[in-house]
Design a protein that fits this description.
- This protein has 5 helices and 3 strands, in the order ααβααββα.
- It has helices at 2-6, 14-21, 30-37, 41-53, 72-87, and strands spanning 27-29, 58-59, 68-70.
- The chain has a 3-stranded antiparallel sheet with strand order 1-3-2.
- Helix 2 (14-21) crosses helix 4 and helix 3 packs across helix 4 (41-53).
- The longest helix is centred in the last third of the chain and has 16 residues, at 72-87.
Length: 89
């Protein structure tokens, strides 16, 4: 719900498809997103830019090519889960 409030995009935008992908794939690349949601590289990069501006994704590679982005909220939730699971052993 927080993500939906932070994003301003048309209802048919590929931004929403990427948001649906992030809980399953917290670190993404443009080719991966193109393959999974079936949109062009240009549209994927535009949508990723929207998510970066909203603070949902962060670019991690620091490169112009072969870039990748992460969803810190998803990675944080996974880390929290791993910590709780380790305490139960």
């Amino acid at each position: 719900a927080e993500w939906a409030d932070a994003v301003h995009a048309r209802p048919d935008s590929s931004v929403w498809k990427i948001l649906d992908l992030l809980p399953r794939q917290a670190v993404i690349t443009s080719p991966l997103v193109q393959e999974v949601i079936g949109v062009s590289a240009v549209n994927v990069l535009r949508s990723i830019d929207v998510l970066v501006e909203a603070g949902i994704l962060h670019e991690l590679s620091g490169q112009r090519r072969n870039r990748y982005w992460a969803a810190p909220a998803v990675l944080g939730a996974l880390d929290d889960f791993a910590s709780r699971a380790a305490r139960r052993r």
